[in-house]
């Protein structure tokens, strides 16, 4: 929490109102902390809960879901006024609870009462179940707020459209709607039969369903899950990996006896996927994983051990020098640092604490990493460039700049796993298959 706390002084006339005020105080200060420090909300709320263990599971749910709901609808809510004004903030909380269809009606009713400024607030409407479509929610927001001027595009900052242009109005609306919907938890089965794992999860009352695109992918639903209580996760048979991220490993499609280098591995989600794909296909191969963050590589080691994968070697970046041998890999994956606009569904706060520089300050670094990493590709080998960005500035333009400087590489045609489209690069949009957003391009080294 920030050093300077904001205190709500509303008088409570019932136990429900007392709880509503307490929740509002906590949520307000968490929100202010995110905006003041420009730190991810997940990190800030995680730290808060570690420091305040008094909160039970219900308290944590109300606080967390209300906070993230505020960020999802912030493009509309911030037009109500200054969130530090307590009446305005109560109004924001009440409207968010309606738009998100939160079940804590007694708390919402108190927020609605405390936030009522004039006759435009319809408390009866606020208590009913809200429609599901974005356009219907826009109509609801206008009725509850008394602000007729708000539009759908307000839910995404204007600078985004300048760097991620979408000409088709229907697709633009679909993207906005997806960004304002809670994403599912996607998982991937490894070292096990997916059908059996799915049945075991369902037997534990987990809302797990299969995936029409990848046989090893499982949708775990939208509700929070304590993974440490799921034995399929703790024994390494289940890894959390978004469906869009899983596309990258499928595009890599490692072959028998191939050597792969995951040049920006992070905590190893894609390294584990590549190894799992090899195991599933009953082929041999080896993965070398590199990152500049030692903690991420330690986490990769833990995950690999849990999964029983022995053919993953670590080679941390120590400097600008290549941490692996040149011309020695059949495949090199560069999942480059980026603006992460493709993950805005999971991190709605990033829409409002980032600015255009999160996109514009990355391409030079991305091109540098891609260029240096390409030296590790054998002649005839493949180079995969991926980001979780939706911007052509970080995606197609980086690939084009790389190819202009490295004529020994050429683009390969790849098939979009969700649409069947064939192209030399793919942007996975969140609305297409209820996933995050990703970009991927595959190149082959045709000469030395």
UniProtKB/TrEMBL annotation:
Biological process annotations from GO: rRNA base methylation
SAM-dependent MTase RsmB/NOP-type domain residues: 173-446
InterPro entries: MeTrfase_RsmB-F_NOP2_cat (IPR049560), MeTrfase_RsmB-F_NOP2_dom (IPR001678), RCMT (IPR023267), SAM-dependent_MTases_sf (IPR029063)
Pfam families: Methyltr_RsmB-F
A GO MF label: RNA binding
Keyword annotations from UniProtKB, A to Z: Methyltransferase, RNA-binding, S-adenosyl-L-methionine, Transferase
Keyword RNA-binding: yes
Gene Ontology CC: one annotated term: cytosol
Binding residues annotated for S-adenosyl-L-methionine, in chain numbering: 291, 335
Active-site residue list: 388
Entry similarity comment: Belongs to the class I-like SAM-binding methyltransferase superfamily. RsmB/NOP family.
Protein name: Methyltransferase domain-containing protein
